[in-house]
Design a protein that fits this description.
The chain is an all-beta fold. The protein is built from no helices and 16 strands. It has a four-stranded antiparallel sheet, with no helix packed on it. Strands 5-6-7-8 form a four-stranded antiparallel sheet, with no helix packed on it. A hairpin with a 2-residue loop joins strand 10 (109-113) and strand 11 (116-121). It starts with 14 loop residues before the first strand and ends in a 19-residue tail after the last strand.
């Protein structure tokens, strides 16, 4: 453990997300204290005062260009060159509560919200909901497998596979242990 002086603490003790960027900084999303960066044993916090759309940070992801994407209860945020740019339902996002973020092999950014799955490509959002075959609209987790299929974990609709524009769902009726899927990982096999 590293001991920090009292002024060098997390902005809030309830941690919702942690992400290590390519430079080795640790980014920490909190329940109501915004985003924190731990670099060189020092914490820096970023909140709505610095331009973050909301201080509840549920997801963090760094894309291949080095942009940091932050999912909050108030939308999707891009942190680039020390500034935040926010994207919300006004920009085409299906819902402002962002729960998960993933970049696929084709550099499309996938965003899971409390209102569906979204693809962000060339500055535009495309939404996928139960209308398009997603089993449930609250998207907790997103993962792309080695074959290029996208796997989507939902709050109560089980697991979805998205391949060639079509959804296939798997629930406890298909042998899944529970219909709430918070994380997905593919092992070597």
């Amino acid at each position: 453990f590293i001991s920090f002086p009292s002024k060098e603490e997390l902005s809030h003790n309830s941690v919702l997300s942690i992400y290590e960027d390519k430079e080795g900084s640790l980014w920490i999303g909190t329940l109501s204290g915004g985003l924190n960066r731990l670099k060189d044993e020092k914490f820096t916090s970023f909140t709505t005062q610095e331009g973050l759309s909301n201080d509840l940070v549920r997801s963090i992801y760094e894309d291949r260009e080095g942009n940091l994407w932050i999912g909050t209860a108030g939308g999707l945020n891009r942190f680039k060159d020390g500034k935040f740019t926010s994207f919300t339902s006004k920009d085409g996002l299906s819902n402002n509560f962002v729960l998960s973020i993933h970049e696929d092999k084709n550099a499309s950014l996938w965003i899971g919200t409390a209102g569906g799955l979204n693809r962000f490509k060339d500055g535009k959002f495309t939404s996928f909901t139960t209308k398009e075959g997603l089993s449930q609209n609250i998207v907790f987790s997103i993962y792309e497998d080695k074959e290029g299929s996208l796997w989507i974990g939902t709050f109560s609709g089980g697991l979805n596979k998205f391949k060639d524009g079509k959804f296939t769902s798997f629930t406890s009726k298909d042998g899944l242990s529970h219909d709430s899927v918070r994380s997905i990982y593919e092992d070597r096999e």
